[in-house]
Fold this sequence. Notes:
Elements (H helix, E strand, L loop, with lengths): L1 H14 L1 H34 L7 H15 L2 H14 L4 H26 L7 H9 L9 H27 L3 H6 L4 H10 L4 H27 L20 H27 L3 H4 L5 H29 L3 H12 L2 H11 L13 H21 L1 H4 L2 H10 L4 H31 L3 H6 L7 H9 L5 H23 L1 H8 L13
Helix pairs in contact: 2-5, 2-7, 3-5, 3-11, 4-11, 4-21, 5-7, 5-11, 6-7, 7-10, 9-10, 10-14, 10-15, 11-22, 13-16, 13-19, 14-16, 15-16, 16-19, 18-19, 21-22
Amino acid sequence: MPWLAAGTGVKLALGGESSFWSALAWSLVRSGLLALIATLFADGLGNWLARQAGVRTWRGRVLWGLLLTPWLTPGLVIGYCYRDTAMAWLATSWRTELLYDFILLSQAVPVGVIMHRFAPRSRMAASALHCAQLQRPRQRIFDTWHLRLWWQARGQSLATVLAVLFLLIFQEAEVASLLQTHTWTEWMFTSQAKGLPVLVTLRYALIVVAAQSIAIVPVASWLASSDWRSRREAVAPSTNRGLPNWLAVGWLLFAFLLVTGIPLDQLLSGTQSGWGNLLHEPALGSELGDAALLAITTAGAVLFATRWGLSHRWPQWLMIALLLPGLLGGLPLGLGLAALFQTDILSMAYQGPVPLILGEVLLMFPRALLLVGLWQPARLSTGAHLAQLQAASPVQGQRDSGRELTWMLRGQHHWWCLWLVFYWAYFELMLPSLLAPPGFTPVSLVVYNFLHYGRIHALAAKLLLALLVPLGAMLLLTSMRRMWWPWFAPQTNQPEDARTP
Length: 501
């Protein structure tokens, strides 16, 4: 009954006010501390990795694989492994909190390493900062001029990384919901599912947006600025040797086992007796198809918008306006779009796929802009232009070599960005749970709903199959790259009198 649902929502709003504020306060404290630890630790770990073997060697690939795999492990896989463990620890919630904190650190440190490694810093070299420090009078303990100098040389970069990691940790929702940890995302998502009215939930979401605006505004301004994408070559190598070998290797192994190794082992062990149950699920194909269709649509639209924005130099205010919705996080963005499309003007589109697709595109746009923008100078480099000219040669051998060089300098980056956006959209959970139209059931949403009943073998098989679909498609298409890349490689106009010998 409508009046019963409304009454339940009012009771939740009145009785959960104090629990919301406590969850929000604890989330802010947790996110700030973990973001600071991850920022400092990622700086040392990134310097250590830079002094190891190159990425193209087997040792470098193993190290970077150990680093990045926890970041790419879906929250559903982690929740499947530790859901029952967290439920057994309800009487001692501090153990669940400690487990959740280490999971967040394991997934935040790789992002910090990537930003420290590839994102540009100030034009000021480390030697210039060192010379300025030598000129500092010894009798003056605090000098604002040298503080501003350090901020321009180093502090601004650290603050940007800190803000990004704070948003990443603060907005995490999937693992928090499955582990039942004390976070604002778990409180809000549970309250909304129990019948809290959309307008009341939206009021709480506005409070959350205001609380994280201190990090959203500088990150949006930084991403919208074109200065950070045009000065990669100005970054001076760091003189810091990084972490000790035992600490760096120990952390990589610990994070990999905690977030990826143990969950995959639990998933594989549960799958052995669950494959037969998949044959009795006629909706499995449609669930996988819905998730893949949504991910393909999102990835194509996001990559097109990103490349268009970077090539046409959109005004900074327009770029900030497009970045802000995605930086809010999946849960506030989904609630805002749900309230917007329930108005009289847009109510006709609420039952369709438009709100969900729009939400996915807005959510993935900041991530794609960061990924594409980090390699943007390579697109404009002289080497890339020469490779494009060679790819248009009338000589078959030179043309093949030019296409291969074009792939190495331009194509492979856009391909991996496209796959990452597809991968993230494929496993996105918050937006489909709030905006999915009737009859549209992505496999991530189905798996999440059944995960609340515990670790089921049939569910392990479905989750493993859902994980193999994007990974298998990526491996297949990458292995066939030489067949489809010539059709998409950038072409340069050839002279009309060109003859093939």
